[in-house]
Design brief:
The protein is of the alpha+beta class. The protein is 43% helix and 22% strand. It has twelve helices and ten strands. It comes from Streptomyces longisporus.
Length: 329
């Protein structure tokens, strides 16, 4: 008899070291080659075929991955598992660092795991959508699952309503697509406490975009997409990815794109723990085309950026930075 799907979501606590992250992914090959990178810290791992080969429960395979990762690289992992990417990801988010949570693939076990959780814990529901749902009395995923589809579609739209209804019942047919980690660069800001001030969120985003832009220019790369990941005080998170109008390493363009993604999340009252900004779909800058603008300010900004990069290369990364990032007197 064929095994039900068994998916693990693995979070590597590698301190943001991108080179180490790529090495950690090779550990997964020793269990099953069916893994998909989720930069900058995670991976989805389909271990369905490995269950029979190792004659082990998914929890045992997760423990084996954690053991090998710790023994070979000294890196701690947090692992969630279930019969879909959705359940595995949510289980990992609900798991204390260094531990493993596996949700059994039975309907009762899935419902017991999902139903008590707040609506914002369901992937795809950001703060604005969560506010809309709670305003209509839908506070938990179980309440969502019990709501008629037509009602959700009236609230959220036809396609989104159906997708949220399926996810609330644990339905997620997405496959784990094997492949190497995509070329990307990321930067992360951890707040010293749960930060509610949108001005501080935007200040952190500006610093991250400046860092990514400088890193990309140093390696002579440009990015085609930008991903914003916001993690909240309750350890849930929201991730949004946008394609850039043109591939770029211009800090101002990255900042503008990051702010637009942030504004669409509606985080005015969110308690934010950390913000990660990731540039992906990288390619050599020499192969990219910059759209010329009849705008002297754009040309001036790029000349200033080049001069700032030269100063940083000579005097260190903190030699030049935007005035709005200067420490308060």
């Amino acid at each position: 008899m064929a095994h039900q799907r068994a998916i693990l979501r693995i979070h590597f606590h590698h301190g943001g070291n991108e080179d180490l992250y790529h090495q950690l992914l090779t550990v997964l090959d020793g269990i099953s080659p069916r893994w998909q990178a989720q930069p900058p810290t995670a991976a989805d791992h389909d271990v369905t075929g490995a269950l029979k080969y190792f004659d082990r429960h998914p929890r045992d395979l997760g423990l084996l991955i954690a053991l090998r990762t710790a023994a070979l690289y000294g890196v701690q992992t947090t692992i969630g598992g279930g019969n879909s990417i959705l359940i595995a990801a949510m289980a990992a988010d609900a798991t204390p660092p260094g531990r493993i949570t596996i949700v059994d693939p039975t309907p009762d076990a899935i419902a017991a795991f999902l139903n008590p959780r707040p609506v914002h814990a369901l992937p795809g529901i950001g703060p604005a959508t969560a506010t809309l749902l709670t305003r209509h009395g839908l506070h938990t995923i179980g309440a969502l699952a019990d709501t008629p589809l037509l009602t959700l579609q009236r609230l959220l739209g036809k396609a989104t309503g159906r997708e949220i209804a399926d996810r609330a019942r644990g339905h997620d047919p997405r496959p784990v697509t094997p492949g190497s980690a995509p070329a990307s660069r990321s930067a992360r800001h951890d707040f010293p406490y749960d930060e509610l001030d949108p001005l501080q969120h935007r200040r952190a985003l500006l610093a991250l975009a400046e860092q990514l832009g400088a890193d990309l220019r140093a390696t002579r790369d440009v990015a085609g997409t930008l991903t914003l990941d916001v993690r909240y005080a309750d350890r849930s998170h929201t991730t949004r990815t946008r394609s850039l109008p043109e591939a770029t390493n211009h800090s101002a363009a990255l900042t503008h794109a990051a702010f637009r993604i942030y504004d669409q999340l509606g985080l005015q009252r969110a308690r934010v723990r950390s913000i990660t900004l990731r540039a992906s779909a990288l390619r050599p800058a020499a192969a990219a085309h910059h759209q010329l603008l009849l705008d002297a300010s754009d040309d001036k900004a790029r000349r200033l950026e080049k001069a700032a990069d030269t100063a940083r290369a000579r005097f260190g990364p903190d030699a030049v930075f935007p005035a709005s990032l200067a420490p308060s007197p």
